[in-house]
Prior knowledge:
Elements: E1 6-12, H1 20-31, E2 35-41, H2 47-56, E3 61-64, E4 78-79, H3 81-86, E5 91-95, E6 98-102, H4 104-115, E7 124-128, H5 132-143, E8 148-153, H6 156-170, E9 174-178, E10 190-194, H7 212-215, E11 218-223, H8 232-239, E12 244-245, H9 248-263, H10 269-284
Parallel strand pairs: 1-2, 1-3, 4-6, 7-8, 7-10, 8-9, 10-11, 11-12
Antiparallel strand pairs: 3-5, 5-6
Helix pairs in contact: 1-9, 1-10, 4-9, 5-6, 9-10
The structure holds 2'-monophosphoadenosine-5'-diphosphate.
Amino acid sequence: MDAKTELCCLIGNPVGHSLSPLIHNTLASRMGINMAYTAFCVEDADVGAAVKGAYALGIKGMNVTVPHKLAVMKSLVETDSLAAKIGAVNTLVRTEGGYKGYNTDIIGLDRELREAGIQIEGNSVIILGAGGASRAITYLCADRGAKRIWLLNRTLAKAEELAAEVNSYSGDIVVPMTLKDYCEIPAGKYPVIQTTSAGLHPNTDELPLEDDAFYELVSAGVDIIFNPAITAFMKKCAAHGAPAYNGLKMLLYQGIAAFELWNGVTVGQSLANEVLSLMEKALFE
Ligand code: ATR
């Protein structure tokens, strides 16, 4: 670092285990960009002051993580239209007079799905869960032209609420149901995106749905969890012959999308793969 180093940072609470500094500092050093990235733990009441202070200090870009992805939107001068609909922002880009907000979590998942050969446009998909992550993913699938979205959640009311909201944006394509009602889905094979916290470390044996009959519906399974690397959901998908992916590439690609927005560059695939293996080392070795 020197007097010309440009700074980017993460705000959230907690931030101590974040892999974002590893992603961004590796990208900057490999691409010869004089940028450094660090993480700040910010209390709820201080989000506005943190964004204002960052702007005053000339900070070039910020990432925002739990629990501030919604609250930070009040402190922006502009918000990307899909991020505004989703109601969550994870990347701030410095512009004239303040920051513009984006949701690169969604760009990350979109890239992971494309890389896995999972096509959303014109297809029906199953989404498990109706929390914050599901909300963004349901909007993404609607935005990408899914034919139908089967939205399954333990608590029906939450699935109904999210479905009503997305349907008012996309037309009637989202069908809310409880997890147990999967048998109402017409026989066939569907991409399944697992967004619940079931199976997250340390409850690694937990499944959102136990029934083997459900996994017969899976053409490909994507779990947004990345720790453990192979979740109970992924094991079930594999046992039923479906390829299964974890959420680590989604995390990598959201970071890459933010880095590209901040620096006006394109990160090549071999560098992306290199960063992915560093992330795996940091997590699992
Ligand atoms: P996130 O922001 O990660 O999506 P969240 O908003 O707290 O987190 O949502 C968690 C999701 O996981 C919800 O859909 C939750 O279901 P409920 O709405 O019924 O609470 C789901 N979830 C959590 N634990 C689960 C479990 N053991 N089995 C099934 N679903 C579970």
